[in-house]
Every structure is written in C-alpha cells, then in structure tokens.
Amino acid sequence: MTVAVLIISHNQVGAELLNAATRMLGHCPLTATVLGVNETDDPDVLLRHALQIVEATDDGSGVLIITDLFGSTPANIASNLTSRPGVEVLTGANLPMLVRIFNYAQLDLAAMTEKAFNGGREGVLRYLQSSTS
C-alpha cells in the first residue's frame, strides 16, 4: 500500500510535471493522477471528478494532492477535499516537490507531505550575479 498522488493544475502543467519526473526516474513508483483545469471548466464538476479520483486511488494509505497556485481554482478544488480523512494538500507544485515524493514513495502520508513540502521549498533558489573585481 502506498500513498496516491493527485495533481490538480492549470491546463497541462500537472501532466508535464508528472511526465518530467517519471522520465527522470525511469518510472512512477506510486499511483499518480492529473486533473487539468481549463478556464471554461465548471469547478463543481471538477470537484466531483477530483473526489472520484481520491476515492478510486486511495488504498487506505491516503492521497497527497498537489496543486500549482494557491488561491486559484485548482487549489480551491483541492482545499474542498481537505475535510476528508487521509487527504493532504500542498500548493506551489514544482518538479523538485514531485521528485521528492517519488523518491520517498514508501513513506506514510504525513511523512511524505513533509518531504514534499521541504523538497518544493528547497528546490527554489536564487542565483546571485557574481562580482568580478
């Protein structure tokens, strides 16, 4: 039994993140599903679809939902699922976050959520221009 991952994102952002992470690692070590949100989609229909995905993929280990932008429609859909037991939500989805999830696929939901959060945050760095004197 492993935690399932649901990526709820704008358009194809989640699909591309999943594709990149899977290619980097050579496989996808857990159940991962993408729900793309377009501007013409009905949020209520998407919420029902997301709930169906959660119910279908949760084997009892829980579901980690990652979404791209806090406060946006994908994040709002995800936030409506947080009242369900065994569901955690992180926003700010990025490739380091997803790779961290896949590298720690054996963890329980709480530990995986923490690893994913730290991986996403630690994967954002600023390069400073070096001074040449």
List keywords for this structure.
alpha/beta, about 130 residues, about 15% strand, 4-stranded parallel beta sheet, Rossmann fold
Radius of gyration: 15 Å
Relevant CATH superfamily: Phosphotransferase system, mannose-type IIA component
Number of helices: 5
Averaged pLDDT: 96
Poorly predicted regions are none
Assign a percent range to the helix content: 40-55%
CATH architecture identity: 3-Layer(aba) Sandwich
Q: Tell me the β content.
A: 15-25%
What profile does the largest beta sheet have? 4 strands, parallel
The total beta strand count reads 4
How would you spell out the order of helices and strands?
A: EHEHEHEHH
Secondary-structure-derived class: alpha/beta
User: How is the CATH topology named?
Assistant: Rossmann fold
Termini separation comes to: 57 Å
Gross geometry = globular
Instruction: Give the count of structural domains.
Output: 1
Polypeptide structure, described:
The structure is a single chain. The chain is α/β, with parallel strands linked by helices. The protein has a single domain, classed as 3-Layer(aba) Sandwich (Rossmann fold). It has 5 helices and 4 strands. A 4-stranded parallel β-sheet has the order 2-1-3-4, sandwiched between helices. Strand 1, helix 1 and strand 2 (32-37) form a beta-alpha-beta unit. Helix 1 crosses helix 4 (95-103) and helix 4 packs antiparallel against helix 5 (109-122). The chain is globular and about 60 Å long. The termini are far apart. This is PTS fructose transporter subunit IIA. Keywords: Transferase. InterPro entries: Bacterial_PTS_sugar_comp (IPR051471), PTS_EIIA_man-typ (IPR004701), PTS_EIIA_man-typ_sf (IPR036662). One of its GO terms (biological process) is phosphoenolpyruvate-dependent sugar phosphotransferase system.
